[in-house]
């Protein structure tokens, strides 16, 4: 039996029951896997105010995504590597750390381009994958790994039909991402950049507007 890859998990962090999103896959007909969710100004949940979320998996069983614009303030990449006992090697690369969502905040996920992948990587789109094993951090710490990537602790999760209900209530817009929107620019800019991709002026956006 093949040995399971070690996951990115902060030592001592509590872990909830598995959400099953890894089996859901990314792109499925009639679902929004691979799309970005953009919070409407009327978003009631303060945890997702002005959030931009990459929806990594969406199916009849629910949905899972990574918040792209909530920086992780209390942990650096070097500190994370130390906690995981990963030795950085020159030339060490840096990677952006984000608070990926309120579920399993001690668990790490790397959203990255598909020029690097491992057996446990979840293919989100043809150009985008999600990996939760420490192998990818070792590769990045050694100067390798994917060309573009970001590391998130935690994720946003929805149960069956929950996301569809929120979209019907105009809580979210959806937009097709590009590499610049995913990996470039500052977190503070992403919400407006995502709206600009939809050609929407946030000053004119109301909570009653329809979704894309």
Automatic annotation (TrEMBL):
Top-level taxon: Bacteria
NCBIfam families given in the database record: PRK00228.1-4
Cross-referenced Gene3D superfamilies: VC0467-like
InterPro entries tied to this protein: AlgH-like
Organism encoding this protein: Teichococcus rhizosphaerae
Family label: Belongs to the UPF0301 (AlgH) family.
GO cellular component: cytosol
Annotated protein name in UniProt: UPF0301 protein CR162_17315
């Amino acid at each position: 039996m093949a040995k399971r890859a070690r996951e990115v998990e902060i030592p001592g962090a509590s872990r909830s029951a598995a959400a099953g999103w890894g089996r859901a896959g990314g792109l499925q007909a009639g679902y929004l896997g691979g799309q970005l969710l953009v919070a409407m100004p009327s978003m009631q949940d303060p945890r997702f105010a002005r959030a931009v979320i990459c929806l990594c998996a969406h199916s009849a069983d629910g949905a899972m995504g990574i918040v792209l614009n909530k920086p992780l303030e209390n942990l650096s990449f070097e500190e994370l590597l130390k906690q995981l006992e990963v030795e950085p090697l020159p030339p060490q690369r840096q990677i952006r750390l984000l608070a990926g969502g309120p579920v399993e905040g001690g668990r790490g996920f790397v959203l990255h381009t598909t020029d690097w992948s491992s057996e446990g990587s979840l293919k989100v789109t043809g150009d985008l994958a999600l990996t939760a094993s420490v192998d990818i951090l070792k590769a990045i710490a050694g100067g390798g790994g994917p060309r573009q990537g970001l590391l998130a602790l935690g994720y946003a999760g929805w149960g069956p039909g929950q996301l569809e209900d929120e979209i019907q209530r105009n809580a979210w817009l959806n937009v097709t991402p590009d590499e610049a929107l995913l990996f470039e620019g500052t977190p503070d800019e992403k919400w407006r950049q995502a709206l600009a991709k939809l050609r929407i002026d946030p000053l004119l956006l109301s909570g009653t507007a329809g979704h894309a």
